[in-house]
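>> received
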Amino acid sequence: QVQLVESGGGLVQAGGSLRLSCVTSGRTFSSYAMGWFRQAPGKEREFVATIPWRGTSTYYADSVKGRFTISRDSAKNTVYLEMNSLKPDDSAVYYCAAIPWGIGPSLSRVGEYKYWGQGTQVTVSS
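>> returned
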């Protein structure tokens, strides 16, 4: 069983930055595609960013492109989401997700992922 634990959320003013981390258990982290999603109150969970299990390609939602960066450190079994120029609309619970051998455009879909973390709250004040 794979466990994902997010951290790094908090309260920040508009224009500020945060870095989210997601640590995964197990020894097969390098074979997982990793994704970040978010869910605001009353809204559906939406795609933010993803990084496939191999290669260097990353994919982002249009709403965060140019402001957010996803990266992974296989030595630490950790995926990061660097968030800059934050806006109040970025406020949500952010979730980390994983799928073995994931690759391609389907990684933007919630249903593609097998494992999920519990989420970390990000609040951006205006």
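>> The first strand starts at residue 4 and ends at 7.
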